[in-house]
Write a structure and sequence with these properties.
The structure holds 2 protein chains of 2 kinds. By secondary structure, chain A is an alpha/beta fold. Chain A folds into 2 domains: about 160 residues, 3-Layer(aba) Sandwich (Rossmann fold), CATH 3.40.50; about 210 residues, Rossmann fold, CATH 3.40.50. Chain A is built from 16 helices and 14 strands. Chain B is mostly beta strands. Chain B has 3 domains: about 60 residues, SH3 type barrels (Roll), CATH 2.30.30; about 60 residues, OB fold (Dihydrolipoamide Acetyltransferase, E2P), CATH 2.40.50; about 60 residues, OB fold (Dihydrolipoamide Acetyltransferase, E2P) (Beta Barrel), CATH 2.40.50. Chain B has 1 helix and 16 strands. In chain B, the strands form 4 sheets. A 5-stranded antiparallel sheet of chain B has the order 9-8-7-10-11. The termini of chain B are far apart. The chains are: A alpha/beta, B mainly beta. At the A-B interface, loops of A face strand 5 of B.
């Protein structure tokens, strides 16, 4: 399909947390970087979320340009102005965000193709939907693209020149670590070279067992705990430990340190994942970034009620199993991933046992699996080239 | 106007000017957005079979259909024969147009046949049906949680995953939308 112009309008509805806004801006930014001459607009229903993770975003301004992306807030007062805009030939419903009803009736004059971009998932049924038409009442051709891990899917969102980014960050690993820890350096040991460093960004979780395992593990650790839900959960668990608060943001249990920084910009977070020894990440966007970091990680999947998120976790493990080289370590990893993602439900009240020791002892082995998965996904090309090829093919 | 989330095999929908019969409808729960439905449907004018994805909150145009209660008589060469319970007229519907519904109807069952402009086009089933298990492996004692599943064949020939405590000759309720086991019926 040959579109009349190269411009792209991305529609994003922030439902909760940071994933919707964060992913959509990342997509917009990478599309712009791929072809700088085209106009990329991000239509979004609120800006407060994005302003917390993207430097320069002013939540009070309905229209602004950040990193080459025109960001437009869809609020009632602006709808009249928005509907007079000329829309791009390609509209993307980011993470299945619908084009708002008030705008939908105006886009048909300009939009030639709509891509409904779905969340990242390894489920086979999801892959089988990739590339199928999504009929709509406006009669505009619309197709579903399913982010996933195999070449039957759209892949994951990868920036142009990813390998250069990986090399650059790895070459300046110490500089980045210093940047993240500098505000707390007076409370931390001067020599951190023997300490294992990890980031924790999760939904609500009981971290009591994690802390017990950290305290009695072979290595001393430094955990950087990010985001309200992780920080509240971790501080609750710390109440059951002998904790020394060295400052409002730094706690010590045994020989281990926990740092509680403010939320950091998206790009800093991406780099943080690359320079840590391990990461705990949450949601789909961070899952993709954790894979691209190449570092061992645990994934906290979005709670879907009735423990349905475990289906998503199993699907991801089915992907990772192809990269593993130790059945014993993988079995232990699977058990931990299942236990970490289990949520209390009306019918299921007995939590499976969590054991982090095996994860901590096998960083090198798990590192190899994640690296292999990263290389496989980079070789596949990722979402943006896949989208371009798909459009050409229809 | 109805929403796509109500769709199931046998439904007739209108897209553009064309009418389509839904052959298969599979639900998928996305991470945070609404569920989507993968559908296989047949264009009632051209006979072309296609696949598409519908968002569950997608509004669909109503199609006016008449319903007649008919008894399923037999299947022969891919055609399903039904008999009108009042006029005793017999009609035939291709298996393909009945979609996954063929898994849930057995001979002698009374079902609602959908009629469009005088032409029988599909069948509408209740949300759940009760069918007898004709074959399944014997379960192992001890598991009563219903979490461990095994395959079971029911009297229509359909195979469904059931809890391990289900046995041959048990009657079970099956959701006709998802094709999944709901409960054992005493």
């Amino acid at each position: 399909m040959k579109l009349k112009n190269n411009n792209i309008d991305i529609f994003c509805q922030v439902v909760d947390n940071f994933g919707d806004a964060g992913f959509s801006f990342r997509l917009a930014k990478f599309l712009k970087r791929t072809k700088p001459q085209r106009q990329i607009r991000l239509f979004i229903n609120e800006l407060k979320t994005l302003a917390q993770i993207i430097p320069g975003v002013n939540p009070e301004r309905p229209m602004q340009n950040i990193e080459g992306v025109d960001i437009i807030v869809i609020i009632d007062q602006e709808v009249k102005r928005i509907t007079h805009l000329q829309f791009a030939s390609l509209a993307i419903e980011s993470l299945s965000s619908p084009i708002p009803e008030v705008i939908r009736k105006h886009v048909h004059k300009d939009v030639e193709l709509i891509i409904t971009l779905e969340h990242l998932s390894g489920e086979k049924i999801f892959e089988s939907m990739h590339g199928l038409p999504v009929p709509n009442r406006q009669g505009i051709p619309r197709y579903l693209m399913a982010q996933g891990f195999s070449n039957k899917s759209a892949g994951i969102l990868i920036e142009p020149n990813i390998q250069k980014t990986i090399n650059d960050v790895n070459n300046s690993r110490q500089k980045w670590r210093n940047k993240f820890l500098q505000p707390y350096s007076s409370f931390l040991p001067s020599d951190l070279s023997q300490i294992k460093m990890g980031s924790i960004f999760s939904y609500e979780h009981d971290f009591e067992i994690l802390l017990t395992n950290v305290k009695s593990g072979d290595d001393d650790m430094l955990l950087i705990v990010l985001g309200d839900q992780s920080q509240v959960s971790m501080k609750t668990a710390l109440q059951y430990e002998q904790t020394f608060w060295l400052s409002e943001e730094v706690a010590k249990i045994g020989n281990n340190y926990l740092v509680f920084p403010e939320l950091m910009p998206q790009e800093d977070y991406d780099n943080l994942l690359m320079v840590m020894d391990f990461n705990f990440v949450r949601g789909e966007d961070s899952l993709a970034r954790a894979i691209l970091s190449g570092k061992p990680f645990l994934w906290h999947s979005y709670d879907q009620g009735d423990n349905y998120q475990l289906v998503k976790v199993e699907a991801f493990l089915e992907v990772l199993i192809k990269c593993q080289d130790s059945v014993q370590v993988f079995t232990q990893y699977v058990q931990l991933m299942r236990a970490y993602n289990w949520r209390k439900t009306k019918t299921d009240n007995d939590p499976p046992p969590e054991n982090y020791f095996h994860f901590f002892k096998n960083f090198a082995t798990i590192h190899n699996w994640i690296n292999k998965l990263r290389q496989d996904l980079i070789l596949q090309g990722g979402l943006i080239p896949c989208m371009e090829q798909f459009i050409e093919s229809i | 106007m109805k929403f796509a989330e109500d769709l199931r095999a046998g439904n007739i929908i209108k897209m553009g000017k064309d009418l389509f019969v839904i052959i298969k409808a599979e639900y998928f729960r996305a991470a945070r957005s609404n569920a989507v439905i993968k559908t296989k449907y047949k264009n009632m004018s051209t006979g072309a079979v296609s696949e598409a994805v519908l968002k569950t909150d997608e509004k669909l145009d109503d199609v006016r259909l008449d319903k007649r209660v008919m008894q399923f008589l037999y299947e022969s060469d891919g055609m399903y024969a039904f008999m009108d319970q009042e006029s005793f007229d017999q009609i035939e519907i291709p298996k393909e147009d009945l979609g996954d519904n063929v898994n849930f109807i057995k001979e002698q069952d009374n079902v609602d046949i959908l009629i469009y402009e005088g032409r029988p086009v599909s069948v509408e089933l209740p949300k759940a049906v009760v069918l007898k298990i004709t074959y399944t492996e014997t379960g192992v004692r001890g598991d009563t949680s219903g979490k461990v599943l095994k395959p079971a064949t029911v009297e229509t020939g359909y195979t469904v995953q059931v809890p391990i405590f289900c046995n041959i000759d048990d009657s079970i309720r099956i959701d006709t939308t998802t094709g999944q086991y709901v409960e054992r019926v005493k």
